[in-house]
Write a structure and sequence with these properties.
- The structure is a single chain.
- This protein is mainly α.
- The protein has 2 domains: 2-59, no CATH class; 86-154.
- The chain is rod-shaped and about 155 Å long.
- 62% of the residues lie in helices and 0% in strands.
- The chain has helices spanning 2-10, 17-24, 61-153.
- Residues 28-59, 100-176 are annotated as: Disordered.
- Residues 102-148 have a biased composition (Basic and acidic residues).
- Residues 47-59 have a biased composition (Low complexity).
Length: 176
Amino acid sequence: MKKMLLNALKKALLKIPHQIYFETVGGRKKGKVPGLGSGDSLYFAPSRRGGSSSSSYTSSIYSQMSTRLEETQQQLTQKSIELETTKNQTLKAMENDLLLRQSEREEREAERLEHQREIERERQERERERREREEHAAQMKKAMESYERMFSQCTGFPFSQSQDPRDPTGGGTPLC
C-alpha cells in the first residue's frame, strides 16, 4: 500500500488514501474489505448487490465528513477574512470620525480664542480712549485755570468795549 501511495504521489495523482487502500486490497471480498472486517462501512459505502463490488469505490462517511469539514473550515476562514475586513473598515471610519471631531473641536477653540482676543483688543481700545479723554479733560482744565488767572489779572485795566449791535440786550458787557 505504501508503494502505491508513493507512486500516486510521484505521479501527482490526487487519490484519497482510502481509495488507494481499497484498490490495493482488491475491493470487497464476500461483502467485506480485507483488513477492516465489519468496520468497513465506516470508511467505504456498503456494496450494492448484483454489481461487481471489487471495482467500485464510493466515498466513505469519514471522507464525506472530512470534505464537509474542510469546506466548513474554508467558509469560516472566508467569513473570518470578511469580518476582519469589516472590522478594519469600521475602525478606519471611527478613526476618521474621531479625527474630524477633533479637528472641529480645535477649530471651534481657535475661533473662541480669536473672539476673546478681539474682545480684549476692544476693551484695551476703550481703555485707551478713556485715558485720552481724561488727559484731554485735564489739559482743558489746566488751560481754563490758566485763562482764569489771566482774566483775574485784567480787572484793573480801563477797558471800554462798545456793545456790538448784534448782541442781545444785556449782553456784551466788557470782560475786563
